Amino acid sequence: MNLALDDYISIYIHQSDLIFTSYIKSKLAPLNIAPEQNLIMMLLWKQDGLSQNEVAEKLDKDKTNIARMAHGLEQKGFINRFSCPNDRRIQRLYLTEAGRQLSQHVIPIAEEFHETLCKNISEEELLQLRSILSKMRENLK
User: Mean pLDDT over residues 64-70, rounded?
Assistant: First the structure.
């Protein structure tokens, strides 16, 4: 079977992700935060003090990339990284006051993005989409 370029669902998903990322990147740029860094911030707004390893696990990202992003967030003054007193290999991430205040600007952007993205899509369709994407991810593990 010879599939045309448009027939590959992975390409369609990738192209969609590029559009999603470009949109949210433009919205977050004035706040000096990248979309990937924002994922870390969203986790910390929910549970401050996570370790870099916990963040990597929750985001299904490479530990090295998380360390690099965390360093960038620290340089911007949004978080502080502290070594765990019991195990110096463990770096815990804590929000600074600027990091906490950032949520007041970012969360409305994230909610507007979600609403725009999901407009005219039913809850049932969203559940089905999550289920299908989960199956695809499992297929590659």
Answer: 95
